Amino acid sequence: MDEQTLAEVERAGTQFNAVTAMTVDRANALTAESNDRRDSGQPPRRLEGIPFAIKDVIDVVGYPTTMGSNVRSDAPAANSAPVVDRLEAAGAIPVAKTNCQEYSYGILGDESAFGRVVNPVDAALCTAGSSSGSAALVAAGVVPLALGTDTAGSVRVPAACQGVLGFKPTFGVVPVDGVFPLSQSFDTVGLFASDLGVLTTAYDVIAGDDSGKAPGPGAVPGLTGSGARTIDVSLFADDDARARDLLMPAPDLTITSANGPALAELLEDLAPIYDYIRLYEASEVHKDLYAEHSADYQPGVAKKIESGRGLCEAEYRKQLEALAELRERSLAVFGGTDFLLTPAIDGPVVRWDEIDSGTAAKFMRYSMPFNVLGWPALTIPLPRAGGGEGPQAVQLVGRPGGDRDLLAFASQLV
């Protein structure tokens, strides 16, 4: 990795408070390896020389994993997470670990021991979270690729607020080993990118060659190749220009709103299941740490952990059963539909000084359901209209296990 790129990442990291550590030693060692391969005549790997950033809940060998928290060990990680190893094996170069909402627990990105990340689009606008810093480095144009995690929208919502691509794969397809958990029933490693081709290649790398099918029974096979497609837009208001303009280039596409009632019922049923499971699992993850260091947590994060304490394990098991049943029932929503198109967030990107008690729910309204269901989803930024208007984005959702099909279809739109 050339010194100029590292300097640009460091500059942007400081300007936007997006970096917790520069991984210079690792970058230099892997760059030397890449140069040796080139000099010996070996063909370039799929991501040869591409710089990438890593959310600081994901282990990188030789560097502490801070989780955006004062409650941490500063001992360097003994091993990298498999997603990092896979990107490096494909030739990508890690350049920085990125600032994030403490322990990934919050969609606004407003609480980190390092302070909140600054939105490169407009410093007055909320970055969203929890993968705020990874989105910011891509939005600033200093890296083309970054890793984040997504439990209720923590990749897709920051991508929407900062004007970049954000992808959450099918639940369970990408390994989460070496990633500090928030809620294991919903946690997914995701990707930010400025270019869909880079994102698609990176997905292929981190998912592996056998990831075309969702894990476990009940997956709906994705359609592959070209041909007639059907997309449901029933979660948009009537004749929403964002949906109409984005879909215009796609050939042989049928647009429908037939799934509206079924989707509305799913949205109503899944929220309480998500809330109970997430509160219980996050509280269990933090039980010992919180007992010893409660005063050192960020106030809002501490409040969420407190909310999960004392929840009943028997009820948690019932909610897991309800989740499995909901995921099975949800497959019928697709029927003859290949994709769903939804808003990315409910309303415009808010300013930091406009955040209120309802903002988090608006941010998660269209993202969280697809963590609960486990379906792949991609935030697509839309061209800005000018006049100071903030970023706008939509979300493209695919069949479970149909990640590559979703990304291939998206390539017709962007």
From TrEMBL:
<feature type="domain" description="Amidase">
    <location>
        <begin position="285"/>
        <end position="407"/>
    </location>
</feature>
<dbReference type="InterPro" id="IPR036928">
    <property type="entry name" value="AS_sf"/>
</dbReference>
<dbReference type="InterPro" id="IPR000120">
    <property type="entry name" value="Amidase"/>
</dbReference>
<feature type="domain" description="Amidase">
    <location>
        <begin position="4"/>
        <end position="213"/>
    </location>
</feature>
<dbReference type="GO" id="GO:0050567">
    <property type="term" value="F:glutaminyl-tRNA synthase (glutamine-hydrolyzing) activity"/>
</dbReference>
<dbReference type="GO" id="GO:0050566">
    <property type="term" value="F:asparaginyl-tRNA synthase (glutamine-hydrolyzing) activity"/>
</dbReference>
<comment type="similarity">
    <text>Belongs to the amidase family.</text>
</comment>
<dbReference type="Pfam" id="PF01425">
    <property type="entry name" value="Amidase"/>
</dbReference>
<keyword id="KW-0436">Ligase</keyword>
<dbReference type="InterPro" id="IPR023631">
    <property type="entry name" value="Amidase_dom"/>
</dbReference>
<protein>
    <submittedName>
        <fullName>Aspartyl-tRNA(Asn)/glutamyl-tRNA(Gln) amidotransferase subunit A</fullName>
        <ecNumber>6.3.5.6</ecNumber>
        <ecNumber>6.3.5.7</ecNumber>
    </submittedName>
</protein>
